[in-house]
Design brief:
Shape: globular
Oligomer: single chain
Number of helices: 6
Helix content: over 70%
Radius of gyration: 17 Å
Strand content: under 5%
Largest sheet: none
Number of strands: 0
Length: 126
Amino acid sequence: MNFLINHFYIFLAIIFGVISQLIIKWKMNAYSIDNYETLYDKFIFAFSMLLNPYILISLVFTLLAGVTWMIAMTKFDISYAYPFTSLGFVLVFVFSIFLFHEPMNLYKITGVLFIIVGIVVSSKGM
């Protein structure tokens, strides 16, 4: 049972990180950084987005990802746990197709399959 609970901390860290990234993408889709000419203007725009409640929520999810990752680090060697963070790439890829209608192609699918195979192979080393 502890085995599953300990892995749940890794899973939560990944899920919180993915949710954070999806919220940021969702909210930033409405803006174009190209509308701002100078680097200063771009930084002002980026920092002004910190006042957006959804961006703040995404930062809370990032914090939760960090906290659950710290808990996971008390349960596993980092060489075992860290490859699982690659699942974040897989989940963002899948959700980006459905939520943002981003393109899917053979190269992306192949890359995701390599990530999954890599996680399976590296997890056998526990």
